[in-house]
Design goal:
Length: 99
Amino acid sequence: MLGNRIRELRKKKGLSQEKLAQRSNISPKYVGEIERGEVNISVSVLTELANALDTTVAELMENRHTADKSELLAEIEAYLKKADNGSIRKIYLFIKHFC
């Protein structure tokens, strides 16, 4: 999950959530929500976080698609729980078409 990757890099850099928030011009509460995967973030916030962590957006996104099947299914389930009925229907039709 992207939030886990951000947390991993933040800790590796020795930064608190508060310090990362300050460097990224976002609130510490929002950093926590991002790390826990509770919110979706914009490209601009992702870019701010990458800059604050002295990395690239590509590096933040690294390993997002190399997780094992159970991790991917858990992440998909988390997204589906947040989605509205219309979005779930579109996702269902997409999966049905390609599987």
